Amino acid sequence: MSTDVTERESETETEPEAAADAASRPGSSTQQRQESDKRERSAMRERAERELAESDRTVELEVYRYDPDVEGKADPRFDTFPVPFTKGMTVLDALIYARDHFDSSLTFRHSCRQAICGSDALFINGHQRLGCKTQMADLEWPVRVEPLPHAEVRKDLVVDMEHFYDQMEAVEPYFRTDDLPSGDLAEQRQSRQNREKIKMSTRCIWCGACTSSCNIAAGDEEYLGPAAINKAYRFAMDEREGEAMRDHRLNVVEKEHGVWRCQTQFSCTEVCPKDIPLTEHIQELKREAVKRNLKFW
Q1: Which CATH superfamily is domain 162-180+190-293 in?
Q2: Of 69, 145, 164, 262, which has the most beta carbons under 10 Å away?
Q3: What is the mean pLDDT of residues 71-85?
Q4: Cα separations (Å) of 168 from 132, 148, 163, 171, 262?
């Protein structure tokens, strides 16, 4: 009887055990994939070593590292990566090289690589900049790259942008008019002068660099911040905006945590990658708020 049970148990091997056994057998797909990945990483490191040896100049990239989900990486540190310098190399290029050749776990955001999406705003050598726009040749070496200050770090160079987006949405960043033109093909015209007035404010790419540089935003989470106020300016100053919506928008920005919290430090203007005169726009909204409340009777 006991012999039969033993035989049946050996024949009914559990699925997890079978899967583990299959993975350990030579030629299994899992083992082959792991070996392939290992060979690929080894080849990339060898290629990096050759490129470094052949390169005339090598830049050291000091990158902030932090991963709360991995034991041993929960304490922030800096890792240094040697990167062969090439003409026209940006900080984003260097980060991609470090990730692809040395450490595939290095985490950062990037997308268009043309200073349009705003996803790779970083703290580079002590200043808020776009990684894809910042030339390595224009920086002092070694180059230190950190996540944006005054934001919660999720992993390495990635910060939580949810609060920033909430502040942007608070000013209702969309167009609303009182009077649409008649006819399906009729245009809602805007004068050249008005277009010139708001042109710079429309260039915002929601990168968050300005808000990260703002000391007021760092100490007051309810403060709308320069990016959100600039977005309010873009619509409030558009001559096609409806009067009721314009009044509503001005009511939003002139509250306690709106334009009056700005201390005119110009830090937001200095770091804006699109050269938007953010501080000027904030001051103009202050003037509009005052004029709206003036009474001469």
Answers
A1: Alpha-helical ferredoxin (1.10.1060.10)
A2: 145
A3: 94
A4: 23, 17, 9, 6, 16
Q: Is 43-159 assigned to CATH 1.10.132.30?
A: no
The residue count for the chain: 297
Q: Is the pLDDT of residue 11 over 70?
A: no
Does this chain's domain 43-159 share its CATH topology with 162-180+190-293?
no
**CB neighbours (10 Å) of residue 45?**
12
Return the amino acid letter for 98.
A
Name the residue among 250, 243, 246, 242 with its Cα closest to residue 224.
250
198, with CB counted inside 10 A (0-12, 13-18, 19+), is middle
pLDDT in tens, 156-199: 999 999 999 999 999 999 888 877 777 777 788 899 999 999 99
Residue in 76, 89, 101, 209 with CA at minimum distance from that of residue 141 = 89
d(CA 283, CA 147): 29
Predicted TM-score (pTM) of this structure: 0.81
Q: At which residue do the structure tokens 């004068």 appear?
A: 191
